[in-house]
Amino acid sequence: MIEAVGLTKRYGRTVAVDDLSFTARPGVVTGFLGPNGAGKSTAMRLVLGLDRSDTGFVLIDGRRFGELRRPLRVIGGLLDATWVHPHRTARDHLRWLARAADMPRTRVDEVLDLVGLTKVARSPAGDFSLGMAQRLGIAAALVGDPSVLLFDEPVNGLDPQGIAWIRKLMRTMADNGRTVLVSSHLLAEMAQTADELIVIGRGRLIAQCPTAQFISEATESSVRVRTAQVERLQTALVHKGATVRHEPGALVVTGLDAAQIGELAAAHGVVLHELSPRRGSLEEAYLHHTGDAADHQAG
Amino acid sequence: MIEAIGLTKRYGRTVAVRDLSFTVQPGRVTGFLGPNGAGKSTTMRMILGLDRPSEGRVLIDGRPYHELRPPMRTVGALLDAKWVHPNRSARNHLRWLAKATRLPSTRVDEVLAQVGLTAVADKRAGGFSLGMSQRLGIAAALLGDPQVLLFDEPVNGLDPEGILWIRRFMQGLAEQGRTVLVSSHLLSEMAQTAEDLIVIGRGQLISQGSTSAFIGGATETTVLVRSPQAAKLAEVVTQWGMSVRITDDDALVISGGSSDQIGEMAATHGVVLHELSPQQGSLEEAFMRLTGHAVEYQADEVTVA
Amino acid sequence: MTLLAVERIKLFSTRAPVWCVATALALTIGATAGLVWLNARHSDGVSPESTQTLYILGLAVTMVMATLSVTTEYRFGTIKATFQAVPSRTRALLAKATVLALVAGFVGEISSFGSWGVARLITGSPHTDIATADEWREIAGMGLVYAVAAVLAVAVGALLRQSAAAVAILLLFPLLVEQLVEIVPGVGERLHDWMPFVAASQFAGTVDPTLPYGPWGGLAYFAAVAAVLLVAALVVVEKRDA
Questions:
Q1: How far is the CA of C172 from the CAs of C161, C169, C197, in angstroms?
Q2: pLDDT digits (tens, 9 = 90+) for A181-209
Q3: What would the pLDDT profile of B163-221 be if each residue is shown by its tens digit?
């Protein structure tokens, strides 16, 4: 569990994070969204104790970062995959981290295996592609087998296989009761991964809620209906107070849900060929919520 | 139009691209997909005349790159947004490019407006955010008003607004009749952007065609049904040879029949429907199925130690 | 102990420190051998203390190694990984200083005994036997000077964070600045007396009777300077964003 309470961080005269409070719960993947410059990275650095907040504090499983005796056992973070000495091998990089976390040496081979870097474990990290560096960063976050995981743009540089792999990894970690906080700009990806969302803009909290709720509150949900008896169904729908729009070969109904439409069709003897609820996309919802919080918009 | 004919590229003893042929049509966005190491970058470099093919050739609007005079008027590319001197302003960066290709300097203001950088045109490029640098790179690619455009991972590092902007922008270019080839690893993004796909693996062509055909051909189309009389409906459709799977929340996933057929059967048997949604597979599923054997390098299954 | 092991793994899992150690030893011992060989033709003997005059060469290289162990962490961003792994930055930095001091001390001992040994091999003269307490201090005590210098270099690296700046200061200060200070009108000589590396050589070399402190006082003063810099570095690193 991560609890941020009233975080504020200024760099000179810019306020990067402004009285920000949020909670990331165990057992779910929490997506951390916001435009560039919204303060996501700063907030993540504050959680990991890398930057000092001007006011407010962060609790990780109930304790402040500075109070953790073996922090890698509690929280693992991947903020920047390039934070590796280019001449040090992947194995050596993990070896010192494992030592710092008081984990047995065998843990290094375990995490190397887990991220698929066993074959290149003895190559200097400077020779790695961005995707491989990303995997090494993930291995480093996992080395202490922590209960809280923090990933900043983890799919950066990964190919489709890598992207599917990390999505599954985060899912598994959350299903095992861990807290997973992941920031990303890829909303279609987040819609598949995140159970809950924390959305910030200009350093402030815009929303914290389940992903489904975030989408349904900001977008219109409708039902796409296909039938041979258009007239009959439309009359019944309008009579019930629904709004009906025409699309090529289909009706788009708002104001009634799919189950209500299905019951209505059955009652009027209408044969349905399709009855698909349509939800808005996370992208639509996000743009609706952050519309005025984006820092630099093109003119 | 881009035509690759029997392209092969060897680096020493490794074959990066092997006998690759494809056509990129004008008027639509074509996605260029493949796992890491599949040869996408090498192919793009050969299209742009940066690498010479060992065998075969690439034609851009009917001519090889080195015959284009000047090339920027035919093909524009965004390969890396950071190829800009940090202390030069956006306008000056474009001005020297325009001079180099003998384009009128009025063109500079046109492309700046096109990508929405007019307001910051005189600021130094070093202070630009990644999204703004990306726009500047696109402005540079557009200077010569080329008919063919290449984008390599254009949304990398962009925020959601930037991603949406690039997607719409590429689609807009295609609507003007241009040829747009874009490589990306982000399949959910590509599914929204690209009408056509070229998929390669280990340097060879795996598939070329429309995105919907690619997905339809590699994944199973099913119909998701919810109904208070689900058991009855399951029985009926099974008799007609369809197969039924029941999900965790008691919905039916039916394969082997269309939603029209299932709707008719439901009506005939007096089954009330609460949902009847045809489910298409995702681009990711299709991609994984078709490139599964072509992956150079893969992590093990996720297990938690 | 864990933190020391962490810093040891970090130090020896890149090539630069190994090269630095090798260079420090080769430079000091090699140059000493050359000097002794040249002198041996003209004079009949070489005293133990005259085998130690070139210690500053190895010391400079060792300080470069120590300061790079901090600045490269900033350069490559591993400092963030370090602070994520070790919540107390003070302890992390102290562990690094300790490991570097131990390694440097070891290098200092090998370098001083190596220089002395190679001189003895070349001259084969009994003049080179270590006899007096002063001679023992000059040779066996060299490790202490190296160790303190390493702590000082770690502190400078942590304060500056930039390799080029830290290396420049650590090389220019003992080799140039401390000599130039003497020409400052009026206070120059007094200032020179209190330069840290002047104090260090009071311990590591021939005792200069004009200095206001003896050899052990010199070492204590050198250590005090290093300690002040280290405390300053700890305070700054704790406060500063990583």
A1: 17, 5, 11
A2: 999 999 999 999 999 999 999 999 999 99
A3: 999 999 999 999 999 999 999 999 999 999 999 999 999 899 999 999 999 998 888 88
- Tell me if B25 sits within 8 A of B194, measured CB to CB: no
Q: Which two tokens stand for residue B53?
A: 């093919």
Minimum CA–CA partner of A99 in chain C: C6
By C-alpha distance, the chain B residue nearest A153 is B157
Contact C87 A100 (CB under 8 A): no
Cα separation values, A12 from A9, A57, C192, Å: 10, 20, 40
Residue of A131, A176, A189 lying closest to B188 (CB–CB): A189
Domain A220-278 has CATH 3.40.50.150: no
Q: Establish how many alpha carbons lie within 13 A of residue A255's alpha carbon, considering only the half-sphere containing its beta carbon.
A: 14
Query: Is B187:B172 a contact under the CB 8 Å cutoff?
Result: no
Q: How far from B252 is each of A200, A226, A232, C185, CA to CA, in Å?
A: 38, 19, 27, 95
Q: Cβ of C86 and A100 within 8 Å? A: yes
Of the residues B162, B182, B216, which one is the last residue of a structural domain?
Answer: B216
Q: Are B284 and B28 in contact (CB under 8 A)?
A: no
* Contact residues, chain B, for A288 at CB < 8 Å: none
Which pLDDT value is given to residue B250? 85
CB B108 within 8 A of CB B95: yes
Residue A97 has its nearest CB partner, among C85, C87, C88, at C85
Name the token pair of C82: 């370090």
Query: Do the Cβ atoms of B300 and A114 come within 8 Å?
Result: yes
d(CA A222, CA A234): 15
User: Is residue A30 within 8 Å of residue A196, measured between CB atoms?
Assistant: yes
- What are the domain boundaries of chain A? 2-216, 220-278
CB contact (8 A) between residue A84 and residue C78: yes
Q: SS3 letters for B174-223?
A: HHCCCEEEEECCCHHHHHHHCCEEEEEECCEEEEEEEHHHHHHHHCCCEE
CB distance from B36 to chain A under 8 Å? yes
CB contact under 8 A, A99 and C80: no
For A2-216, the fitting CATH number among 3.30.1050.10, 3.90.550.10, 3.20.20.140, 3.40.50.300 is: 3.40.50.300
Residue-number span of the structural domain to which B244 is assigned? 220-279
**C-beta separation of A242 from A228 below 8 A:** no
Those residues whose C-beta lies under 8 Å from the C-beta of residue B13, and which sit 6 or more positions away, are: none
pLDDT confidence of A282, banded at 50, 70, 90?
A: very high
Looking at the domain assignment, is residue B293 inside a domain?
A: no
Q: Find, in chain A, the residue whose alpha carbon is nearest to that of C14.
A: A88
CA distance B95 to B88: 11
Query: Which pLDDT band, with edges at 50, 70 and 90, does B296 fall under?
Result: very low
Inter-chain residue contact C85 with A100, CB threshold 8 Å: yes
Give CA–CA dist B108/B90, Å, rounded. Answer: 10
CB-based contact, B27 to chain A, within 8 Å: no
Interface of B with A in 169-228 (CB under 8 A): 185-189, 192, 226-227
pLDDT at position B298 over 60: no
A38 contacts A293 by C-beta, under 8 angstroms: yes
Nearest-neighbour CA in chain A from B131: distance (Å): 9
Q: Do A188 and B188 touch (CB under 8 A)?
A: yes
Among B156, B157, B185, whose Cβ lies nearest the Cβ of A159?
B185
Q: What tens digit of pLDDT does each residue of A74-132 get? A: 999 999 888 899 999 999 999 999 999 999 999 999 999 999 999 999 999 999 988 89
Neighbouring residues of A114: CB distance < 8 A, sequence distance ≥ 6:
A139, A142, B299, B300, B302, B303, B305
